[in-house]
Specification:
Radius of gyration: 35 Å
Number of helices: 21
Bound molecules: ligand C2E, calcium ion
CATH class of the largest domain: Alpha Beta
Oligomer: single chain
CATH topology of the largest domain: TIM Barrel
CATH architecture of the largest domain: Alpha-Beta Barrel
Structural class: alpha+beta
Length: 683
């Protein structure tokens, strides 16, 4: 007994026992000053386990353990109602007491103080679960969490949203302001992420500038899209770091279990693909995963493979588009534009293959080839005619770039002043010193520099001031809308002309197709124009013929007025009515409704379901009906898909769809399906 007393009084351990209902019948007084009042109260209400306990298995509720009447071994607990910093942690053990006939009578046990070892262990495991820089969860923890959530949700059909997030231009900040600044930026990013996501999800940093958010029970694409847009908006606000301002952006890819994948690997790769598409779609966007993205990815990898061989097989070719001085309709130069004649697919447009070439670094060899080829071709032209060659930012950034330009000039004998390199603002997304050096070296060679696609980038003005451009190329998008009533684009064109003048730069206006556009840009001060109204890009033979015969005048030729291209939607949809499914064609789609072609005899007021594919079912009411075309209104408006399209907020899981399809129709169809013209040859 003396030993027991000592044990109890040491404060390092205590003894306890309960009755069969789990109420305390004894507890060592040393456990707490108020221990005397504990007797008679349920043990489970006086102590608690730690939700942050790194040991799995110990997170089963204490009441559950007690009610199972089994043995309790070293369960880490603390007294309830004590502040975190004062809490002592106890390893609680207990033996069930049984009567001779085996009836449970209660527990007897002891508990020992494990505070310091437990806290150390918890600290260590936190270090292994947390990203020390931002305090967010690390990749390891996110992987485990996602596995656990999906495993728990799968059998009960719960859903889970997953966002992958990547910062745009983070590297730029890191390179220009230094790593400590980059670290500080990441900490601020984490803070903003926490603010937006709050209690709804778990945020992790996977490494670098890549983040992940797990959003359990979230499948509403309206809310997911709103959250993503909010994240992007928050992260794009300026940061103050070491007294300086920094601006970055963010792109988000979103996938939802079980629709887009029901295990971690599938879901993560779906969200990754969506992120990739978001980044490619022009940064600062979010994108939902869709099956099309998977096809795109496969297509891309096939094309990358083919592109590796293309140059060696002579499948690449340069076409040349004239640049015309509109005062006298004379060609003053040509822009070289790359064409890929794929043996099976035919001509692949550069907007498709240039990004692929950039991603795989193939652009470096393609670009050098274009430079050499264009210089050789141009060297045979009259001296008054210049050549413009596009240079990708990837190509601009490789150390051998200036040497390659010099090589192309000397090999062809072309006078450097006749070569103009077209660069886009993306060349500035890099260490600014290296960029400045390259610019200086190019100027040293005597070539001319043009800033392409002006007006579409981030902050054109500051770049214009900092780099020695000879020319600004006004982006096609302004010309396309310059005849619109609101005059906004026309005003922008005027402003760019004024700016170029003030900076002593020349301009070229791209994409003029119609006479009304030509007149607007002429009125706004354009001198040089490149566009279909004069000529499209033409093959080398045509150019050489033209140049050799001295036919350097081109009369404008095109439509009087520019008509914006009307893109009619043409998409197959299913119409579900009673237990029938009809095939039809969707002509128009907005958030609130659609126009659907191909069903006869549908009265106004009919309720039906439009199957937009991929589990997207929209409950709809027919509000118009004329012959085979109906107009429907959706019961719940659709939501934006992040890429200019719309989608349903919720989706029906694939399993439910399969089950529904398994039960065939039992009634006669009410409506008649009719063929829609053109539906055979277009998908
Ligand atoms: P870009 O440098 O802005 O080239 C102008 C694009 O506008 C060309 O498209 C040209 O055919 C098109 N265009 C010219 N006038 C009109 C018009 O009146 N109406 C319309 N609708 N389009 C017009 P293209 O040849 O398809 O090239 C697309 C882009 O691919 C180029 O845009 C450029 O960024 C890239 N690219 C083409 N060749 C090369 C190359 O050799 N190297 C690199 N790095 N990029 C290239
Ligand atoms: Ca260009
Ligand atoms: Ca351009």
């Amino acid at each position: 007994m003396a030993m027991l007393d000592q044990f109890e009084q040491s404060g390092l351990a205590w003894l306890w026992s309960t009755d069969r209902e789990g109420r305390l019948t004894y507890i060592s007084p040393s456990v707490h000053t108020g221990a005397a009042d504990f007797v008679g109260r349920p043990l489970a209400s006086l102590i608690e386990t730690d939700p942050g306990n790194p040991d799995e298995g110990s997170d089963r509720p204490l009441s559950f353990q007690l009610s199972s009447h089994g043995r309790i071994t070293d369960l880490v607990v603390r007294l309830t109602g004590i502040a975190e910093q004062d809490a002592r942690w106890w390893a609680l053990s207990g033996q069930p007491r049984k009567q001779a006939d085996g009836t449970f009578e209660g527990y007897s046990g002891y508990a020992r103080d494990v505070t310091s070892e437990y806290l150390r262990k918890r600290e260590d495991s936190r270090a292994a679960e947390f990203d020390s820089l931002t305090g967010l969860f690390n990749r390891h923890r996110m992987t485990r969490r996602l596995d656990a959530v999906l495993a728990a949700f799968r059998p009960v059909g719960r859903c889970c949203g997953l966002m992958m997030l990547d910062l745009d231009r983070f590297k730029h900040v890191n390179d220009t302001m230094g790593h400590p600044a980059g670290d500080e930026l990441l900490r601020q990013v984490a803070e903003r992420l926490r603010k937006v996501v709050g209690e709804r999800g778990e945020i992790g940093r996977l490494g670098g500038d890549e983040f992940q958010v797990i959003l359990p029970d979230m499948d509403d694409r309206g809310r997911l899209g709103d959250t993503a847009a909010k994240l992007i908006q928050m992260l794009s606000q300026p940061y103050v770091i070491e007294g300086k301002r920094a601006v970055i952006g963010a792109s988000v890819g979103i996938a939802v279990a079980p629709h887009d994948g029901d295990d971690r690997e599938a879901l993560v790769s779906a969200a990754d693909l969506a992120l990739y598409a978001a980044k490619n779609g022009g940064r600062g966007q979010f994108r939902f995963f869709s099956a099309d993205l998977k096809d795109d990815a496969m297509e891309r990898s096939a094309l990358t493979h083919d592109l590796r061989e293309a140059l060696g097989r002579g499948e690449l070719e340069l076409h040349y588009q004239p640049v015309v001085r509109i005062a006298d309709n004379t060609v003053v130069g040509f822009e070289a534009l790359m064409r890929w004649n794929h043996p099976e697919r035919g001509t692949i447009p550069p907007v498709l293959f240039i990004p692929i070439a950039e991603e795989s670094n193939l652009i470096v060899s393609l670009g050098e080839w274009a430079l050499r080829e264009a210089c050789v071709v141009a060297a045979s032209w009259p001296e008054s005619v210049t050549i413009s060659v596009n240079v990708s930012a990837v190509q601009f950034a490789v150390p051998g770039f200036v040497t390659a330009v010099a090589g192309a000039l000397s090999a062809s004998g072309l006078e450097p002043g006749r070569l103009e390199l077209e660069l886009t603002e993306s060349v500035f997304m890099r260490d600014s010193e290296a960029v400045d050096e390259t610019f200086a070296a190019l100027k040293g060679l005597g070539v001319r520099l043009a800033l392409d696609d002006f007006g579409t980038g981030y902050s054109s003005l500051s770049y214009l001031r900092s780099a020695p451009f000879d020319r600004i190329k006004v982006d096609r998008s302004f010309v396309e809308t310059c005849t619109a009533k609101d005059q906004n684009s026309a005003k922008i064109i005027t402003a760019i002309m004024g700016l170029a003048d003030a900076l002593g730069m020349e301009t070229t206006v791209e994409g003029v197709e119609a006479f009304d556009q030509l007149e607007v840009v002429r009125g706004r001060g354009a001198k040089l124009v490149q566009g279909h109204i004069f000529a499209r890009a033409m093959p080398l033979d045509d150019v050489n013929q033209r140049v050799a015969s001295g036919a350097l005048k081109i009369e404008p030729n095109g439509p009087k007025r520019h008509r914006p291209e009307r893109r009619s939607v043409f998409r197959r949809v299913g119409i579900i009515h009673e237990d029938h499914r009809y095939e039809a064609v969707m002509r128009d789609l907005s958030r609130t409704g659609a126009r659907i072609d191909g069903l006869l005899g549908v009265p106004v007021g009919t309720s039906l379901v439009v199957d937009l594919g991929g589990g997207q079912l929209a409950i709809s009411h027919v509000v118009r009906s004329k012959e085979q075309v109906i107009g429907v209104e959706f019961e719940t408006p659709l939501t934006t898909d992040g890429s200019g399209g719309v989608c349903t907020r919720h989706r029906v899981p694939p399993t439910a769809l399969a089950a529904a399809a398994a039960t065939g129709p039992t009634t006669a169809p009410r409506f008649v399906e009719v063929a829609v013209p053109g539906s055979r040859d277009r998908v």
